[in-house]
Write a structure and sequence with these properties.
Structural class: mainly alpha
Number of helices: 9
Largest sheet: none
Distance between the termini: 56 Å
Radius of gyration: 17 Å
Helix content: over 70%
Strand content: under 5%
Shape: elongated
Amino acid sequence: YKRQESLVFLGKLYLEKDDYQQALEYHDQALALYEASQAATDKQWGTLYQLMGLTYEHLTNYNQALHYQQEALKALASASDPKLMGQAHQYLANVYWKQGDYQKAFKEQRVALELFDRTGDKRLLLLGYSTLGLIFLSIGEPQKALEAERKSLEFAIEIDAPAEQATIHKNLGLIYSCLL
């Protein structure tokens, strides 16, 4: 397991460094080893699939991103961990949103928020509401977008997250420009 976990970790590092091709190489190697050993846990599969989905999303290969995020959701379904399941729905919402399928994005985001609410994790809630705000803006609902972003900002202030506050203020500016 150590080799597979190391490859997943290296892939994640390259994903964070925006070196998506290198991230995919490591993730593909981990995937092959997981398949060969057939001993990976559902959480390990889910994590790998999520990372692969995120990498493909950054490469704007949304069909592949969607495939891996759906696989992650299936793998994590047995985990009964609201944080992991919420993140899986959040990642799906992001891909649907980028594909322009706003109704599916909205549906997945609502599920993610329900799960994040159960965790009480304010960082997840602020990210969830901010994403919901952007989805609302995309479907032409700037008032609802404003409400969601303001709620997100409340969480960001509460947990003292200045980078997230800056992003939310940028989103609020975008929304206000649509209201003019």
